[in-house]
Design goal:
Blueprint: H1 2-32, H2 41-64, H3 67-96, H4 101-131
Helix pairs in contact: 1-2, 1-3, 1-4, 2-3, 3-4
C-alpha cells in the first residue's frame, strides 16, 4: 500500500506541476495582453484540460487514502480550479477594458497564493505519512 500511495501522490503532484506551468504561461499572456484585445483562448482551454487531469488523478489519491491526505488533495484541486476561474475573469476583464481589471488581478494573485499554500499542505501531509508521522493535525 505504501508504494501505491507514493505513486498516486507523485502522479497527483506531477499533474499539479503541469497545471502550474500552463497557469504561469497563461498569466503572463494575460498580463502582457492589450486592453480590449483577444484573450489567450488556447491557453485557457489548455489550463482547463490540466485542471481536469488533476481531478482525474485526485481520484486515485482518494482510492489509496488515507482520508486526511485525500482532504488535502481535494483542497489543492479546489484551489487550482478557483485560480483557473480567477485567470479567466482577469482575461475577460482585460479583454473588455473593464476598469476593475486591476482589482481582479489582486484576487487572482490571492488565488495563486492559495494554490501554493494548499500545495504546501498536501506535500507536508504526504511527507509525514510516508515518514510514519500523524497526518490528521497538519
Amino acid at each position: 500500500m505504501r508504494q501505491q500511495r507514493i505513486e498516486a501522490y507523485s502522479e497527483f503532484l506531477a499533474a499539479y506541476d503541469a497545471s502550474t506551468v500552463v497557469a504561469s504561461r497563461t498569466r503572463k499572456k494575460i498580463v502582457d495582453m492589450e486592453s480590449r484585445s483577444g484573450q489567450p483562448e488556447e491557453d485557457l482551454h489548455e489550463l482547463a484540460a490540466a485542471v481536469h487531469k488533476l481531478r482525474q488523478v485526485r481520484q486515485r489519491v482518494k482510492l489509496v487514502g488515507p482520508e486526511p491526505i485525500h482532504i488535502r488533495a481535494t483542497a489543492l484541486e479546489d484551489a487550482v480550479l478557483d485560480y483557473r476561474i480567477d485567470l479567466e475573469m482577469v482575461a475577460e476583464a482585460k479583454a473588455s477594458g473593464d476598469p476593475d481589471a486591476a482589482q481582479l488581478f489582486q484576487q487572482e494573485y490571492a488565488g495563486m497564493r492559495a494554490s501554493a499554500d494548499a500545495h504546501d499542505s498536501f506535500v507536508r501531509a504526504t511527507g509525514a505519512l510516508i515518514e510514519g508521522r500523524d497526518t490528521s493535525h497538519r
